[in-house]
Amino acid sequence: MRDESETPEAPAAPQRKLTPANENPWYVLMTLYGEQEGDEVDWKLHEKNRKVWNAWAGHGLSEEERTAASEQLKIERAELEAWPEIVPEIGGLFRKEFQRRNPEANEVPELPVSSERINVSNTSFSNAVVLTQAIFATLVDFQKSTFRRVVFCNDAFFAKGAYFCSSVFGEVVKFSNAIFSHLANFRSARFIGDAEFTSVKFSQVAIFSDSNFVESAGFKSVIFVQNAIFHCVRFEGECIFAFSRFDRGVNFYGSKFEKISNFRLSSFGQNAYFSFSSFSQVVNFRSVIFKRGVDFRATTFGASAYFVKVVFGVVANGEAFSRFDDCLFHGPTSFRRAQFWGRYPTFAGAVMHDNTVFPARFSPREDEVKLDARLLNVVYWPVEPDQDPAEARESCATIRHILAKQGLPEDEHFFFRREMQFAGKIGSIWQRLPYLLFGLFSEYGYSILRPTLWLLGVWALGFAAFWGHFSGCCVPAPDTLIERPMGSAMALSFSNLFPLFGFGRTFLLEELKALPAVLQFFSGFQTVASLPLLFFLGLGLRQRFRLR
């Protein structure tokens, strides 16, 4: 006896009823001379079917559209103009073929009109669907359809919209070299086999949101003229977007890349969003160009990530950005030879891997340029970035911290100098003054030459003042005759710069006592000024010889 307290199981969700493909008049017209029933594609049969379909579709195209279609698909123009000659024969053949495939049908539908929407939605395709070099002159609707076998849409031409929303592709699907002149909508589609979109051109918006690629997804050399939307897509297999071109915005928000992902040598003309995505395996962005902004906020990189030779923000203004805030890098990450044209990247809250590589100089070395001429005029970091100084300072501090863990003092100090430079632009003049002086006198503890020149300047100034006094050309003149005024002036000015050695107390005590008050004050100034300059000199020597 069933316990009444138990919650009854909810009834299973009803499965949508799909129409068999042979009951669809458009499919019958597509396969008028027979379906692809074997394991291998019968290309001769397909050619016969294609010529009938293209003649029917070409009847609805203008002269300009026929010319463009024949050139793009590399088919004879006569194939698109043959409909008036074959329509009497095709009309009768269509009725016979439809009745043969549907013997229990009460009536045979009329031959579809080429100007109407091609409605093959909610359809079950049991056999292979071969539409290579087929032309769709009007909107084609495959929504919520199921393809149990392979689908070949290579070199197909979709003159109007193409809807594959919520469709299921059971085996390999190929759209290589296809052309979508209007909206291409694959929202919530499921690709169980390999999906190949190599060299496809999407002239209008391409939507793949919430789709699922179980096997490999090949988008190599694809051109997205308008926005590309891959919101919350799941790539369970290898994902390839290498050599692709995104002319407008692209959105991979919340997508999951579970195997190797390859975006090598792709270009993004507008903002690219990868925020809240996850890359479980290696991701390759080598030599990618992000012309404007790229957003990786809260993205997880589960393995190695390669941003080698990536160009961030070709447009050097406030519209360019590269954000890695709150990212989690589990594997080594390389930004080697990456170029940040307009702004420093932001890493607020990011967890970086200890083996993260950044270029630690403004431009390539001469020996690198000799080996690779393409590096000529390359700039890794902007000298005057168009961003908030506090944001740039935080970015440099984050990078410096990573490089410090790797024991790279030279690279670490490069970003320390940038950090101090931006700190000198934050706050009031009194808050900025210490950083400005630090940079002026020592290049933020990096230069040996600057503090040395400043020490020489202070010494020379003291030497000139003491020599003038000892020579009697200044008022007041010394009470006693100084036999070697130049030597004494040089020694006294030197001893003031190095009081710890005690030269003044040992050898020049009488000269110091005889100095007028103004020169005694100047001697004290020399001593006080020399201390920070000597400290800066020590910092430069320590950094130069990598002393810890």
Descriptive keywords:
alpha/beta; 11-stranded parallel sheet; about 550 residues; disordered N terminus
How would you sum up this structure, described in words?
By secondary structure, the chain is α/β, with parallel strands linked by helices. Helix content is 32%, strand content 16%. Helix 2 packs across helix 4 and helix 9 crosses helix 10. It is rod-shaped. The N terminus is likely disordered.
Condensed summary:
This protein is an alpha/beta fold and 548 residues long. It contains 13 helices and 42 strands.
From the alpha carbons, calculate the radius of gyration and give it in angstroms.
38 Å
Please indicate the percent range of residues in DSSP E strands (runs of 2 or more).
Answer: 15-25%
Low-confidence parts: 1-8, 10-14
Percent range of helical residues = 25-40%
Give the number of DSSP strands. Answer: 42
Q: Estimate the mean pLDDT confidence.
A: 87
Count of DSSP-assigned helices: 13
Helix/strand class: alpha/beta
Task: Please summarize the sheet with the most strands.
Answer: 11 strands, parallel
Strand order of the largest sheet: 1-3-7-11-15-19-23-27-31-35-39
Overall form:
rod-shaped
**Distance between the ends:** 80 Å
Task: List the quaternary state of the chains.
Answer: single chain
